[in-house]
Structures are given as structure tokens and as C-alpha cells.
Amino acid sequence: LLLRFVAPTAGRVTANAHDLCAVPAEAWRAHVAWVPQRPTLFDATIADNIRLGRPDASDAEVARAAQAAGAEAFIAALPDGYETRIGERGARLSGGQAQRIALARAFLKDAPVIVLDEATANLDPQTEAALLEAMRALLRGRTALVIAHRLRTVREADQIAVLSGGRIVQTGTHAALHRQPGLYRRLLAAQGDGT
Prior knowledge:
single chain, 195 residues, alpha/beta, two-stranded antiparallel sheet, 7 strands, 15% strand, globular
């Protein structure tokens, strides 16, 4: 709904009190950067894939975005650096590398609204920790919607909404939800994170 891929069948989605259905979808999406669980990557160069965030970006801007996303080291190790073709759907990249390209794209776009949709799913703990650090920098000063099953991803959120069966069953900060009996605390225990 927030990305305007579908329209609400009831109620409305607003941003700064404006009904998003009254704003052309492309105009709204210019203000949103989306980092999905499986980023869309094309059989093009690393630079071209990052530039999807802003096609007119210079090489220096692409490099700064990659550095901010923590992608610079692995890109430098590729045979042709930023000009390395990555294969359809990023076939030549690991999951963590693909996520870093998606984060670099979001850094480059520099949108005021960020949607992170399971951005750390299916990553090993070390890669996840590194991506979380880059995501903290990306989210600074922006409005963000972070969708996650791994609760480490949402611990620092101003407001957490816990969903079960498509309904919100709890809301609050990490500290408040940790103190309350309920689904959030059970999920923390199941993930081995009782802190």
C-alpha cells in the first residue's frame, strides 16, 4: 500500500495528511527508497544496478553510495570493479552482496522515506550485523518502515507494531514490549534474544 503497488479497499494511506491515492504513483515513489528481501538486479554492471536509484548519478556519487552501504570492498575485488556484469538477478553475487547493492541504491536515491522489507532475511549473522550498521546510517533523519522477522532489525525503532494473523496485537518500543507479556517477548525468547 505504501509503495502504491495496490490501492486500499477500505480506509486510506496518508503521508503528511495527504491521501496517497490522490498523488500520482510515480510522483510518490520518487520520495521512497525500497530495499526488499530479494532486490531486483539486472544483467548489467554493478554501477548500472546501483544507478537504478538515480539514473543521472555520477561515478563518484555511485562510489560514495557503495561505500556508505559497505559494498566498496567486495566491488573492488571484482574483476572489473564497478563495471563488472553481475548476471541476471545478481547471479554472480552472494545474498549479502546483493543486499549491499540494494542499500547502495537507496543511499544514492537519498529519499526521505525508506521501506526495508526483510532486508536482512537469509543472511548469516556476521553479514546481518554489517548490514544493520549500514542501515542505521541510511535511516538517520528519515522516515522508515522496517518489516522484519528478525527482531534485531527493529530494536532501535521509535515504534514497533507486532502483527499476528494480519492484525496488530502489540505496539511500543523494544524496551516496553520486552517488559510486557505477549507475542513480542515470546519471539525474542524464540530467537534467543532475551535482552
